[in-house]
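Take one record.
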Amino acid sequence: MKWTDSEDIAIALAEKFPGVDPLTLRFTDLRERVLALDGFDDDAKISNEPKLEAIQMAWYEEWKDAQS
């Protein structure tokens, strides 16, 4: 997975951290969780706020659906 694979990253995060509301995380914490995912293989230096925000919003959608 790369930084631009926000949907795939969101699914992986939702599976690994099912009880976490993604909107409660700071971007620095989100970045560390993404970097620690199995299958994530991209340069840590190219992460930025828009990419992290896209991941956070996609993860939020996954989390919200799981709460229903």
In short: Residues 6-67 form a domain with the Arc Repressor Mutant, subunit A fold (CATH 1.10.10.600). The chain has three helices and no strands. Residues 20 and 63 are 8 Å apart (CA to CA).
